[in-house]
TrEMBL record:
Listed SMART domains: HECTc (SM00119)
Protein name from the UniProt record: HECT-type E3 ubiquitin transferase
GO cellular component terms, A-Z: cytoplasm
PANTHER family: E3 UBIQUITIN-PROTEIN LIGASE HUWE1, HECT DOMAIN UBIQUITIN-PROTEIN LIGASE
Length: 543
């Protein structure tokens, strides 16, 4: 044994023994690890080639003879190729404990160990880490060297929403920006764009048409219609450019808000001319460039449904339509789904409504399926009708516009990057990366909210404690899950008319058009917090 600085002790361990707090000895393949780092409250493995391990020890302590040598030799051959998930849990648990120490030497050693661990395992080995990994991820986000490790770890984590939702939003924005840049040792200069404030989009379009270089290394912007202030940085011009460009796109009528609050905007079905399709494509390029430069475009409040489409070819549902067009959702979808027509005067049957598998927008009727004009909506097929209706309203009727928008985005975001993005970033998080998160005052939110009579006082209090235990980004995600947008309406939280009610469902649900959140019963604040975060992330947890 050799004592090192900061209380670390190094042990020869050719059989891969792991010592962890309160645990029995566990084996790890000596193919990967041959040295153990020990401290007062536990120990973790330290990776090192076998040939170098003994050099760290004095000749006496490095020599292993007799029965111990035979035991080490036997253990070295058993499961040599496997780094078991249970052992990974032990290692990560020890690292998460050690990272809380104040010693800079200990911190550096643990991060170096973790870096090698990340390079030695696959995503399956992380599954057993559980709460240890949940403690580790936020800590890594707060450390400069830890963020470097997360770049490698995120490749393993992105298959598991339980873990990716723990990664901070600013790290995800930074990670995405790096991901969008082309992998080249000789990075080309950013594309130089000269634009006019008075004719911003026209000059932008002309400038992009003339550039032959890839946009993957970004843009530098200068305004030609006025003299630049001496010493003003390009990044400042760029920030102003993105703000002005987003404002211009929102003024063109490409997007429309029907939520009554201007909290989110969806594609305008009537914006379908050739010129407008070119504008959609240009808008997509600006969105991609904003993500590349980590610049926000606050006025571009895209609907959750549209953000889902930017992430992937996602399946859109009733909750998305409720957020985009709450009036249509209430008057038509809920009326059919919940059978409100049976309570009208005089009472009706669904067949009395004369509905077929068609949708009419702007006086134009479209069949929702082959022969839809002749297919009558009945009690037996109304769920299928609603599914097809939601898809048509959100995507089918605006397919050319969405395709044009995606063509522009995909000039910056390749299919490979998009695949990683959709596994790592939720639709709500993408909105926050683009627009910035809303600063929420929980006390003000609580005072402006309504507890439905059926909800117990204990559940009501637990909900606010669960929100308090969340990060600001997670709070924004819950707000969007419940109300359809994390952007507040004019009048703020008081105008939101937020309410909380109980449900017999096994997972949190919401009706965004009413800003109503439905909660199952939970045994603890932590259990409720996790369920709400995962539901807002698009991966609800059933009880």
């Amino acid at each position: 044994m050799r004592t090192m600085a900061a209380g670390l002790q190094f042990f020869r361990s050719t059989n891969g023994v792991v010592l962890t707090p309160g645990d029995e000895l566990g084996k790890v393949s000596s193919k990967y690890f041959d040295k153990v780092v020990a401290v007062a409250d536990g120990a973790v493995l330290w990776p090192e080639p076998p040939s170098q391990a003994a050099s760290l020890l004095d000749p006496v302590s490095a020599k292993i003879d007799g029965p111990d040598a035979e035991a080490c030799q036997d253990a070295d051959t058993e499961d040599e190729e496997v780094l078991a998930g249970s052992n990974v849990k032990q290692i990560i648990n020890s690292i998460s404990l050690l990272l809380s120490a104040e010693s800079s030497t200990l911190l550096s050693s643990c991060l170096e160990l973790l870096q090698t661990l990340v390079e030695s395992i696959d995503s399956g080995a992380l599954l057993g880490a559980g709460s240890s990994l949940e403690r580790l991820i936020p800590r890594l986000c707060s450390l400069e060297k830890g963020r470097d490790i997360l770049y490698g770890l995120i490749q393993l984590l992105q298959w598991w929403p339980r873990y990716t939702q723990l990664i901070s939003l600013d790290f995800k924005s930074e990670w995405l920006s790096e991901l969008l840049q082309e992998n080249s040792e000789d990075a080309p200069a950013p594309v130089r764009l000269e634009v006019q404030r008075e004719q911003l989009l026209a000059s932008l379009c002309a400038g992009l048409a003339q550039c032959s270089n890839s946009l993957s290394w970004g843009i530098d912007v200068s305004f030609t219609d006025e003299s630049d202030d001496e010493g003003e940085e390009d990044s400042n011009h760029r920030q102003e450019f993105f703000r002005l460009a987003a404002d211009e796109f929102m003024k063109l009528g490409l997007f429309v808000s029907k939520d009554g609050r201007n909290s989110s905007f969806h594609v305008n079905p009537e914006a379908n001319s050739e010129e407008q399709l070119r504008q959609f494509e240009l808008c997509g390029k600006v969105i991609g460039l904003a993500l590349l430069h980590q610049e926000t475009v606050p006025s571009m409040r895209l609907s959750p449904a549209l953000r889902k489409l930017l992430l992937s070819n996602a399946k859109l549902g009733m909750e998305d339509l409720a957020a985009v067009d709450p009036n249509f959702y209430q008057s038509h979808v809920l009326r059919i789904l919940e059978g409100h027509y049976t309570q009208e005067e005089p009472p009706k049957q669904l067949s009395d409504l004369g509905l077929t598998f068609e949708d009419e927008i702007g006086g134009v009727k479209t069949e929702l399926c082959w022969g839809g004009a002749e297919r009558v909506v009945s009690e037996e097929n109304k769920s299928q009708y609603i599914e097809k209706l939601c898809h048509h309203r959100l995507l089918g009727c605006v397919r050319p516009q969405v395709d044009a928008l995606l063509r522009g985005v995909h000039q910056l975001i390749s299919p490979e990057v998009q695949s990683q993005l959709q596994r790592t970033v939720s639709a709500a998080e993408l909105g926050m990366i683009l627009c910035g998160a809303t600063k929420l005052n929980l006390q003000e939110w609580k005072e402006a909210s309504t507890k439905m009579e059926e909800l117990s006082p204990e559940a009501w209090q637990m909900f606010w404690e669960a929100l308090e235990a969340m990060t600001p980004e997670q709070q924004n995600g819950v707000l969007e899950f419940a109300s359809g947008s994390f952007h507040l309406p004019e009048g703020g939280l008081a105008a939101l008319q937020f309410s909380v009610a109980p449900t017999r469902s096994t997972e949190p649900t919401a009706v965004p058009c009413f800003s109503t959140l439905y909660l199952p019963s939970y045994n603890s604040v932590q259990e409720m917090r996790e369920a709400l975060v995962m539901a807002s992330y698009g991966h609800p947890i059933s009880k």
